[in-house]
Amino acid sequence: TVCYLTIFFQLVGGNEWPTFTGVCEQPGDWCTTQCQITGGSGGMCNKVKLCICRPL
């Protein structure tokens, strides 16, 4: 469930881009939803099912 999400931050060019695990396996577009909640424009799941947020 969404309650068990782990949030990771990676430094990219001095900016922090949030990533989420556990949302790509959920039905619906939880990746984009979680990214929009954190202030991004949307999100995309990669091959290892890591949700990567896009900046506004």
TrEMBL record:
SUPFAM superfamilies: Scorpion toxin-like. One of its GO terms (biological process) is response to other organism. It comes from the Eukaryota. This is Uncharacterized protein. It comes from Drosophila rubida.
